[in-house]
Amino acid sequence: MKKRILMTAVSTLTLALAAGAAHAGATFDAVKKKGFVQCGVNSGLAGFSVPDEKGVWKGMDVDVCRAVAAAVFGDSEKVKYTPLTAKERFTALQSGEIDILSRNTTWTVTRDGGLGIGFTGVTYYDGQGFLIKKKLGVKSALKLNGATVCVQSGTTTELNLADYFGVHKMKFKPVVYDTADETVKSFEAGRCDVLTSDQSQLYALRIKLAQPESAVVLPEVISKEPLGPAVRQGDAEWFNIVRWSLFAMLGAEEMGISSKNIDSMKDSKNPDVKRLLGTDVIKHGLGVADDWAYKIVKQVGNYSEVFERNVGMGSPLKISRGQNALWNKGGLQYAPPIR
Amino acid sequence: MAHTTDSDSLPSRPPPWNDPRIRAIVFQVLVTAGVVAVGVYLVRNLLHNLEVRGISTGFDFLANRAGFAVNQSLVEFDESSSYGRTFVVGLLNTVLVSALGIVLATILGFVIGVARLSRNWLVSTLAATYIEIFRNIPLLLQILFWYFAVFLNLPPPAEALSIGDSVFLTLRGLYLPRPVAESGFGWTVFAFAATVAGAAFLVRWARRRQENTGQIFPAFLASTALLVVVPLAAFLLTGRPLAWVDPQLEGFNFTGGLSVIPELGALLVALAIYTAAFIAETVRAGILSVSHGQTEAASALGLRRSWTLRLVIIPQAMRVTIPPLTSQYLNLTKNSSLATAIGYPDLVSLFAGTTLNQTGQAVEVMAMTMAVYLTISLVISLFMNWYNARMALVER
Questions:
Q1: DSSP-derived pairing of the beta strands A124-126 and A79-84
Q2: Which residues of chain B from 114 to 173 reach within 8 Å of chain A, CB to CB?
């Protein structure tokens, strides 16, 4: 759309106008100076980033930014959000419009290598799946030959889709939209037989249907989609802060520290806990206060709290932890030691 | 009037800083140098920033494998095609919707514009209502309306509206039988080409005869009839060498046959209807610009009403109509980029959207896209200027 082209053009122009080199620490310095974190999020994806009825942004991706703000400013509310479509997200980050891209974005080598951005970690291990109308009676993705598939533009989903059908010698017709809303609307109208996206999104999109039970998610997961926050290259300090904000939440869960019990844990004799809470001062060199992790857990919560509240059993999505369980509970989530 | 022409009383040559010619040149050089300097500064800065941030640059990406699919392509395209190919596909889709849109909008616009001037109250009121409604609603809303409220409310493939089991209309698109030429069809094509040449000759002959003798030969009617009859005769004589493949409902969708996707339909309808409202007003202005005296003079000469319109009014109205018409054509072409709202794979949606996002090379992709719109617009402008010069009143 015109506005979008304009935005891209302006971003391109910003890139042309931004004088001088981005020296190390440029983003971090700029964030400290302006007093808030500018966070690029999805314009509306239940469980990940969506404004509630009061206009307050909620979701896992949102909580990542809140955690960073808690670490940097000691206040998780010092975040401003920029809702982005899949198409706009990288240009927005590259041009400096946002400081963190936390928008259910898949970590891939071309994005790390060629776009001038870096992924700091994985907030959610996801995989691509298919949502289909129940009445078609299809039980497996391998029976989708000849189907019309709705997909969002500019995503890894679009690429995996073509790969999957190619490998299995099946034909399909894609219908490509800019936003999740349009995709769901046209799936509901019957423009396509199948909607494909990351599985977490499929559950989130399904509850948007007039009759959610009229559609089912097929069992096949056709790709690896590690979703995580990304920052611009060239500022190692900022990269570290974003990376360790996530690790602090994971570490807290592993040690059994939550926003509810964190104040009582302050008396703990466990050296790991003491280091995390900053009661035992370590030279972390992140450039933030000693009690940065305490602030994160106190204000945002540990990983488990964030997960359950947004996409887990405490949410309408009711997604189980699965691959996102901690490493010692059969999942993939693992944080390096905070010491 | 001594003060105007007496050159001796003027200084033979003013000092250079007061010479308007030299001053004009100096200022132009300064402005040009300034613009070039800013341009060079921007480009250098851009390249520097891209390098510092580790963003790939250059046009090498165009040769890389795209790896995604497109739902409408006028040229061969599959997942193994390159990003460069997505550019071609997007470009052709933009040209397709713009060209069809221009034709439809022009026809509709002329009809409505003439209807607006009709003496029949109902007809002129209907035309006026049409213009006021469609001119005043934002185009994006109209596109979304046509797509989500009209085209996506057609029946699903299983309950398709059909004409004689060969034409099907569904929310997945319009499906038509696909013609397949068999041996001997070349004769029909040849007959058609020969008739076109013959018709051109006939028109010239008729004009010469009219100039020489004053007698009129209905060349237009005659050549139209020939164009239908001769190829048809050749077609029938060679034993109807054309097969039709009907679309069949197979699995999820119709296969075989030709298909028109609803995204194209919705975009085309919205663009044509919206732009036609503006064209209608342009046409009305053109016709009204020809004074009524011309009509009266024509009928005093005994010209028929239809001839008055064709030979007196329209040629003069065209002079006024063509320049704003050009602007409308340019608008329509540029507005076609709203396709991205409904997923029609035009240049902006496909190349400046998906390709930009998959490669991350915003600068190169946006530059190419802008260059394309500029080129298309300039081509339309050039053509319309040429046409305008041809239609302009030749003053003697």
A1: unpaired
A2: 140, 148, 152-153, 156, 171-172
Amino acid at residue number A85: T
Q: pLDDT tens string for chain A (339 positions)?
A: 455 555 566 666 665 655 444 445 789 999 999 999 999 999 888 899 999 999 999 999 999 999 999 999 999 999 999 999 888 899 899 889 999 999 999 999 989 888 889 999 999 999 999 999 998 889 999 999 989 999 988 788 889 999 999 999 998 999 998 888 889 999 999 999 999 999 988 988 888 898 988 999 998 999 999 999 999 988 899 999 999 999 999 999 999 999 999 999 988 899 999 999 988 888 888 999 999 999 999 999 999 999 999 999 999 888 889 899 999 999 999 999 998
pTM for the whole thing?
Answer: 0.80
Segment (H or E) for B90: helix B83-116
Name the residue in chain A with its Cα closest to that of B44: A16
| Residue A257 and residue A302 in contact, taking contact as beta carbons nearer than 8 Å | yes
Tell me the fold of B83-177+246-391.
MetI-like fold (1.10.3720)
Q: How far apart are the first and last CA of chain A?
A: 49
Report helix, strand or coil for B197: helix
**Chain A CA closest to residue B252:** A147
B48 contacts on A by Cβ (under 8 Å): 21
Answer for the pair A230, A120: CB distance below 8 angstroms, yes or no.
yes
**Residue of A256, A242, A270, A223 lying closest to A326 (CA atoms):** A256
3-state secondary structure of A279: coil
Q: Across the interface, do B53 and A161 touch by the CB < 8 Å criterion?
A: no
Backbone torsions φ then ψ of A135, nearest 5 degrees: -65, -15
Q: How far apart are CA A338 and CA B162, in angstroms?
A: 68
User: Which of helix, strand or coil describes residue A314?
Assistant: coil
CA distance A63 to chain B (A): 25
Q: Which CATH superfamily is domain A128-223 in?
A: Periplasmic binding protein-like II (3.40.190.10)
ipTM reported for the complex surpasses 0.95: no
Number of C-beta neighbours around residue B220 at 10 A: 12
Does the domain spanning A2-125+227-329 belong to CATH 3.40.190.10?
A: yes
Q: How many CA atoms lie within 13 A of B120 on its CB side?
A: 6
- In chain B, what residues touch A153 (CB-CB under 8 Å)? 343, 349, 353-354, 357
Q: What whole-number distance in Å separates Cα of residue A213 and Cα of residue B1?
A: 96
Query: Among B89, B102, B76, B50, which Cα is nearest to B328's?
Result: B102
Chain A CB contacts of B252 below 8 Å: 136, 144, 146-148, 193
Domain-wise residue ranges, chain B = 2-52, 83-177+246-391, 178-245
Annotated domain spans of chain A: 2-125+227-329, 128-223
